[in-house]
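Section 3.1 - Work completed
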Amino acid sequence: MSRPMSTVAVTGGTGTLGREVVGALVAAGHDVVVTSCSSSSLRDGVRTVRVDYGRPVELRAAFERADAVVHCATNVTGLRGGEAELGKRVLAAARDAGCGHLVYISIVGADRIPLPYYKAKTSTERLVEDGGVPWTILRATQFHELVARLSSALTRSPLVLVPDIRFQPVSVTEVGARLADLARGSPAGRVRDLGGPEIADWPDLVRQFQAAAGRSRPVRPITLFGSVYAGYRAGHHLAPDGDTGTITFQQYLADRFRR
């Protein structure tokens, strides 16, 4: 059940996902406070607070009077303690500010694929669950943007060698809308995973990317080894039984290259 119009703080609100969350919240009539470590601006009517995530007092001040916090900021590099330390600081600030709901975005298969970043996301999930703030966690599959970026990098070679794994890319707009909806509601714990409308072989997605980008290099699937690759081969990063978006990778590409 959605609550009356409230104030929601969004960490990382100037990033790819954060902007979508902010847009959905504003469209629904909520007051939004964006915390960001950059000086990027958003839109009129949205208060953007530049913070150092390593300074709890700055975060706590930004979260004052916020009914909910959507935690979209992330630390992929692992510097300054990484994702888990960032989550710990956001949690402490939300708790000290008296926020009644924290929404965290994670990754499908984070607990089953042994990538360092995935392990950090799983650790942060545990922190959220035990952090003393009522919580909601949403796991999503890979964004269209990530699959396109990886595919673009691969197609710079004359012969495109692509690991024979599958992806279920999802629209960042739809993930942002789901997070905004969750923030408007009551804490729900771990909710159903969210994936894209199609599960496709990565080589086929690369071919779609090439067609949209006007490239025509030969694509050859390859087999890799190791525990990370085995996790992807097993499909642990997919959400066939979860909720699904509606925007396909091909639709995303058509819109991207049209713009």
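Second construct:
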Amino acid sequence: MEKIEDLLTALSLEQNITLENIPDIDLYMDQVIQLFENTYNSTKRDEEEKILTKTMINNYAKGKLFFPIKNKKYSKDHIILISLIYQLKGNMSIKDIKVLFEGLNEKIMTSDFALEHFYNSYLQLVNENVETFKKDVKDIAVATKSEVIKLEDKDEDYLEQVLLIASLSYMSNLYRRAVEKLVDEIIQKR
């Protein structure tokens, strides 16, 4: 279980851009990239990995994942949307994110939609999800260990790790499939 605690700590699950992290002034692209690098640096798999690049942001803009910027500056709402994109792109296609955000972008541009309140709700759910995730991973690790013991193989540590990876990967696929079904519902309602 100690290894699982180390894993959960190493994941830096609590790292998120909060509204307090986002300045009240509009930012240039390099400043946006720096904000993301500073916030998510501990989540990198290796030092070469880039959290956010100019190309990524330009592709999000060209793909109309967020409403147009003004004077080459990104507002707080842009940064919130980029933060959501950053979180979603790990298990959603850019095409699905675009579908998901079309309504949000329209609300932002045509009404007094309080994106900051929406984002705070998202962050609240994220915090709850992190706690649920930690508990679930610990439970799966315990179940994995008991299954590997039944195998009576001398390479228990390795088999335990493979079984845990396979189990977590399967759970990830289940969540991804649920997300895809929900996006399909949005498409059907258009």
